[in-house]
Structure formats: structure tokens, C-alpha cells
Amino acid sequence: MLQQVNGHSSGSGAQGGESLREDLQEFLSGEAPLHQLDDLTKVNPVTLETVLRCLQARYAADTFYTNAGCTLVALNPFKPVPQLYSPALMREYHAAPQPQKLKPHIFTVGEQTYRNVKSLIEPVNQSIIVSGESGAGKTWTSRCLMKFYAVVAASPTSQESYKIAERIEQRILNSNPVMEAFGNACTLRNNNSSRFGKFIQLQLNRAQQMTGAAVQTYLLEKTRVACQASSERNFHIFYQICKGASMDERLQWHLPEGAAFFWLPNPERTLEEDCFEVTREAMLHLGIDTPAQNNIFQVLAGLLHLGNVRFAHSEDEAQPCHLTGDAQCSLKTSALLLQLPEDPLLETLRIRTIRAGRQQQVFQKPCSQAECDTRRDCVAKLVYARLFDWLVSVINSSICADPASWTTFIGLLDVYGFESFPNNSLEQLCINYANEKLQQHFVAHYLRAQQEEYAVEGLEWSFVNYQDNQTCLDLIEGSPISICSLINEECRLNRPSSAAQLQTRIESALAGSPRLGHNKLSREPSFVVLHYAGPVQYHTAGLVEKNKDPVPPELTRLLQQSQDPLLKVLFPADPEEKAQEEPSGQSRAPVLTVVSKFKASLEQLLQVLHCTTPHYIRCIKPNSQGQAHSFLQEEQGDLLKVPRSRPPAATPLDSLQVLSQLEACGLVETIHISAAGFPIRIPHWNFVERYEVLRRICARTSSGPHSPSPAEGHSERSPCTEAATLQAVLQDILHTLPALTQAAATLGDPAKATPAPVHCGRTKVFMTDSMLELLEHRRAQVLEQCARRIQGSWRRHWHRKQERQRRAAVLIQAAIRSWLARKHVQRLHTAATVIKRAWRKWRIGMAFLASKELDGVEEKHFSQVPLPTGSSLLPQTQTSLLAAIIRLWPLGLVLANAAVGVRGFQRKLVVWACLQLPAGNPSSYPVQTAQGQAGVTSIRALPQGSIKFHCRKSPLPYADICPEPSPYSVSGFNQILLERHSLGHG
Ligand SMILES: Nc1ncnc2c1ncn2[C@@H]1O[C@H](COP(=O)(O)OP(=O)(O)OP(=O)(O)O)[C@@H](O)[C@H]1O
């Protein structure tokens, strides 16, 4: 379903699909992590994948029990789990006010059954059906449950009754090792595999105390006595006696140490189940005393020796087969141990007795080697099967309470799971037939439970259209024609028919059955039955013979001759039995075939189960290696190791086995039943929360009775928590669904145009996968539209924001630039002011220095300079003269120091030009130079503007240099006077 949902979003890529899937997974499964989900039906949606994931997560968290509706799924830990089955825990579950609120456990089931019995609500009797494949933990579970009842159902008031109860419980518990020793064997799949089915009835009195028990067994695999698959073993008891017998017993039973027996393969393997002492002890508790035990073990030793009796092929058909090698010795020992006459034993094994004609004339015909082997094996199987039945009857007589002393019971059915091997025969047909029957029983019960849930939610059951496995049962056991009836008919007619003929008969007679298949690729004659757990191919070869399970009457007669006390009990000389064992072709009595016997016992069992309240425990084997910490998950096709450091130890084939177990135990069927109804159950609030978007979108296009306007819808959102509003919103969403399906139809998806399979219960919305798919698809569309709108708005907003930011940036930049410019100007201004101030200061300093540099006599000296002749010069003339002096001082200097070449008039001209005296008589401006005179050597101007005459030779290096015309030209501390004009005007 999730894949389908993903299919819609495939356009958005695998990643998008994955995220949607996770999102949906999270939504459907709620917040709880998978390993915390106590009930597999709460895994939403209930698919194989999610169920496997949940089981795997729980297994990784060392949580081995999980509910699956009315079923408990038990994962085999394959390791001792401390305190998981402790008496303290038993008492805790027993004392809990609501044990179902504790963690799922077999004790929850145990306690539930116990309380049901106490409540006396019909049907009072309870049954627990423990199923699963070999090695999944059925026997373990049954054993633990028996211990649980032994603890909780034993609270007698008086000391005496306490002792009685304790003795009974001990006997019940002791029946386990005895039955396991005789009925269990080491197989490829389980070291302690039960080779029989059993139903244990724990009998309770009015005070719900365990007063006794009864065991019923089904289909013991007796062929194992004489025939074991390679790498497998015979029943445990044979190994126990060979390994555990004392020296005396070895002598008594002719079991020398290291003796080899054909029927004792792989004796070197030592298992914990090979504990002879435990078996003997338990037998003793059950009332089988030591002599009786010895008798049993002696017979078993006799059978082992019988297995060593080997026949050689006889060239002459008229002659019986000879014995090979040590066979004679083995025959002798076997006859001795079985207390049978040796010769009749050999003769019965080698010669067939035939009665023919009206007179019932007796003919004797030597058997072929194969027939001899079959007859020898038949003796062993017959003895062992009867011994086993006898043991069961002894156990029953030991543990069974007086019918008047018990009123109710709790039944424990430990039944072999569904089997499908490469080569399936009558045994698998019977086992799978039983599983089909139990599955039908389970389905009826599960559907009833479902019905109850729907009723609680106020839903009508008629929506669920589920076909159970009746068609398959019709094919197997139906009347008048079915597989069983056809096989029985072959036995009754006793006509020679080949395997191919049987196949043709079955196929032609049952051609109309939808559950009958045919494997065209199979070379062997076979037919295929489509079981609820998958198709199984049954080979027809040997089917009729196995069904007849013929016991030549002479073999029974022979065993009746035994002097052994046990064999005498097992094979009493019963005239009725004798008559029944007449050759079937001649007898008018109905043939008692394996199938008919099995069918009868199965019907009896189902009758019992129908009168009880059933409880189901499905045992699952997490891996085929029997390893702890590894769980195989089908989806990934590989080994999912809990601690990742461990190396992988299983192949993908194993992962298929995990899935097939889930199929075989009916878990897949449970899922299918869920799918036939409403596998998706979403609480109202969650539904509204997720799909409210649909309502708001659809409100624009359609106006349902509850559809508010979009604006209303918006304002309504917050009060949704109110129950009434929630209901209104829920109804609105549900009203949009027909429009959705219609839209899907117009878009050319007719599959989704079917009426919306959605039902609103009291607390949950129930729907099918397809509806969820449609809702999710529409939601994805709506979200996409919303996403587009959000993207558009966001882009617009973003662009506006960007524009605003750009403008702001420009503004900020301009402001900063102007601020910087102002700052710069300010700095320059400040700097200029500082410079100016410093400059002024410096100039003042310079002027001061300059003034100090000049001697202070000049002015005085100048004033004292004698006026030229004719001191009648006017002050104006004096000023002019002073100006001339000032203007001419450089020239004077030049001339005074000039080269010798300028003389006389030339010299005068130069002076004239220099002075720029007004035209006139130059002689009126006599020029005095310092040359040749001590006196003014330079004229300097102080910064203050006053003029000083330097009367002596200046030490300043620049005093002789012609000054620049610039008023700022400064070349020494004192300034060479340049302001000619100001001086002139001054
Ligand atoms: N709850 C458990 N805790 C620990 N180990 C377990 C548990 N259940 C089963 N096992 C282990 O798994 C093995 C097989 O279990 P068990 O014999 O009960 O399987 P089964 O389903 O009865 O097989 P079969 O049908 O062949 O008899 C046990 O011998 C035991 O080692």
C-alpha cells in the first residue's frame, strides 16, 4: 500500500517518495517507536513489511512477545532469558489488576484464561492453541504455561489438599520429560522436535485449582523408528538407554558399549535431552515402577536388534530371503528381548500369508527382500506406536482426575505447524489439513473479534467481504468427493493403481476446485493444493499405501504370541481386532485408514475447541540456525543482525522462511482479513490534523453543508480542539471525499472512482488502503499547490526585501561617504589650523631668533649714519634713499663682491638699473655701498615688518644671496627684505 502511495509521488523522485513514505509511516504509526508497539495490529498500516519491521525492532530490544489482536506472537530467543519465566513474574501477572496492561507475555494469556474460567462467563472452558514451525518454541511455551498454572492454580486451603495438588502438579509436569523422551527426536530443524501433536487438558475444580490433566496425542511419526533421514536421529529414548544404562542393564538388554545399530544413527551426538535418569525419575512419578520401566527398555532394545536383521536378495522367488552377516544373531537377540519364538519371527518376516477364495484358503508366499524389510519395519512401528499410546494412557491414568472432581478446563494444543517440503506425502497432507481446520477456527474467531471492534465503533460488519478457507477444506475433506475420499476409495477398493493414475483421478474428479493446482514442471505424479499459507505439491507415489498403513495380520498374531508382559498388554488376543484385520478386500467393515482416523480425531478436537474460548500463541523462529540475536527480514532479503559485529550466518533463503512462518501461522491471513475490512484506523483528531488541508481547498470549489468560507475556515482553526468543532471539521473533510473520488474518475483513474470506502466510527475513521492512497495523493497535490504559493510569495517577499536592502545600502553608503568627507575636511581643517598655529608660532619663534640673531645696534647705527653732504635733505629724500638702499643692497652686495670686470660707468649703470630710480640725474641718488666700508652689509626685515640693518658681516650663509621677490621667501632666521614696494611706499 505504501508503495502505491509512493507511486503517486514517483515524479518527485525516489528521495521524495522515501520521505513521503516515512512521513506517512510516522503519521500512521503515531509517535511510538516500533519496538514499543505492543500490538501488531497497531502497526499502521498493517502490512507484512511493517509487521516484520516491528517484530525485528522488538527482537532487537530483547522483547520476545507481541500481541497481534487476539493472537500472541512469540519470538524464540534461542537463549536463556533471565527472569522471563521466573515464579516471581508469574505471580506478578497473576496479581496484576489488569494483566493485559502489562507487557505482552505468555503469562498474560495464561492469566487471561485463568480469569475467564473464574468469571464463569460462557464459554467457560478455555483453549490455548500454540502453533508454529518445528523449533519455533511450541513445546517450550506449553511447558512454561503448565508451570504457570501449577503456580497460580495451586492455593489449596488445607495442608492435605495442598499435598494432593502438589502431587498432581508434579505429575503433570513430569509427563513432559516422558512424552518428550518417547515422542521427540533430533531433526535438522530442532534438536528436540516433537514428532506428535498433543492436546493437554488441565482440569480445574470449582475453586479453580488444578485437580488433574488429560493428554491426547495426534499423528505420532512412527516411521522414524525404522527410518531416519540422514543427519537426523531416532526418538531420544533409544539413545538414552544406550548411553545411560548401567552395566547390569546393558547385559540384560544386550546393549554392549559401543554397539552399532542401523536404527540408531548419529549416536555420537550428545544432547541435553539424552538424560536417561530424568526420564526414569519422571516415569517413576507417573507410577511406572522400575520393573515396568525395565520391561519397556527391554522391548526397545529388542526393536534396536530387530533393526539389525538384514535380508539378502533371493535369486529364487520361491525361496525366502536369507539373512545377511550377523543378522541371525541379531534376530536371536531380538526374539529373546521381545520374548518371541525365533523361528516364527523369522518366518513371519519372510513369508506372506494369503487367504483367497470362498473357503478362505491359506497360501504362503515368500516375500521379496524389500517386502521383508517392510514387514520388519512394520513390526517395529507397530510395537512403538502401541507402546507410545500405552504410555499416554498410563500418563493419563496417573494425572487424570476423577470426572466428578473437575468442572472446567484449560486446553493447551501444541500442534505441528504448516509444512511444505520438496517432497510432501500423506503426513504433510494430514498436518496441513489440521492447520487448515485450525485456521478456519482462528479466522472465525478473529473475524468475530473484528466484528466486536467495529460494533464498539458503531460500524456495520456487512462492509467486510472476506472469504475464508472453506474452499480448501472442501477440496481436502469435502463430501462426496475430495482428496481424502478419493484416497480412501483407493484403499477400500484395494485395486492396483499407479501414482499417475491416482493423480489423474484426483485432477479429473476435482477439476472444478479453485484450490487444486497442477505443477506442469514436475516429473513425479503429483497434485498441488493451494493452502491459505501457500501452495504445496503432494506426490501421489505411496500415498495410498501410507493411507492404508497395512499391518499384515500375521505380524499382529505373531506379536500376540509374545511372552513379554508389556507386549501382552500391547497386543492382547482380541477376536474383534482379529476380524477387523482381515484382508480389507474381503471385509465388509469400513476400512480404517490413516486419513479417516486422523479426520475423526481432528473433528473431535475441533468439537472441543468450539466449546471453548480460544487464545492463540504463534511461535516464530527468527532464524533457521537456532542462533540468538539474529532476525531475518524478508523485505531486505538478508540477515539483519542485532549486534552488527556478528558475522552473517544465514542465507536469503532463510529470510523466506521467516515470511513463510508468518504466512503459516496465519499472521498474513490476519493482515488480509484486516485488509478486507478497514485496515487503516485513524483517530479523529489525527485525521483532522492531517487532512484539514483538503477541506480548506475544497471549500473554494464546492460548498458542502458544513463548508465554511475559506476565511471562516481560517478563523475556525484554533477552536478545532473542541469536540463539536472537531466533528464538524471531520464531517466537512468526509464530505469532500466523494468529490475527490469523482475527480479521480474524471482524471481517468476509474479504480479510485468507486464509492469512498471510509467509515467514521465513534473515535476513529476506518478506511481501506485505496482510500488512504487517494487521500494522500490529494493531500500531496494540495501541499504542492501550497508549496508553490509559498514559494511565489517568498520570492516576491525576497525580491522586495532585496530591493529595500539595496536602497538602504545606497543610502547608508551615501551617508557614510558624506560623513567620511566631512570628517576628512574637518581633519584637514584642524590640521591646517594646527599647522597655521604652529607656523605662526614658528615664525614668531624664528622672528624672535632672527631678532636675537641681529645685533641691536643697527637701527641705532642707521640713525647715526651721517647724512650725506648737504644734510639739508628732506625727510622724503631720506625715505627714498632708504628705499634705494634697501632696493639696492643686493646689487651693492653683488657689486661689492662682483668680478673685477664691471667698473666705472658700467658700474654706475648697473646701480641705476637696479635702483630704478626715476629718470633724472642719477647723481642725485648717491649710492653707498658697503664695499670698502665697515657698516651695513645687509638689510634684513624682521617678521614684524621692522627693518634692521646688519652692520657687520653676517655669519648667516644666505645673507649674500639675492632674495626672491616672494614676500614669504625665507632663507634664514631673519628675512631678507623684499617688500620693496611697501618699503618704498612706507
Ligand atoms: N522462550 C524460550 N526461551 C529460550 N529458549 C527457547 C524458548 N523457546 C524455545 N527455545 C529454544 O528453542 C528450542 C526449540 O523449542 P521447542 O522444542 O519448544 O520448539 P517446537 O516448536 O516445539 O519444535 P517442534 O515442533 O519441532 O517440537 C528449545 O529447545 C529451546 O532451546
Automatic annotation (TrEMBL):
It comes from the Eukaryota. GO terms for molecular function: actin filament binding; ATP binding; microfilament motor activity. PROSITE patterns: IQ (PS50096), MYOSIN_MOTOR (PS51456). ATP binds at residues 132-139. Keywords: Actin-binding, ATP-binding, Motor protein, Myosin, Nucleotide-binding, Repeat. One of its GO terms (biological process) is actin filament organization. Coiled coil: none annotated. This is Unconventional myosin-XIX. Actin-based motor molecule with ATPase activity that localizes to the mitochondrion outer membrane. Motor protein that moves towards the plus-end of actin filaments. Required for mitochondrial inheritance during mitosis. May be involved in mitochondrial transport or positioning. One of its GO terms (cellular component) is membrane. Belongs to the TRAFAC class myosin-kinesin ATPase superfamily. Myosin family. The keyword Repeat applies. Residues 35-780 form the Myosin motor domain.
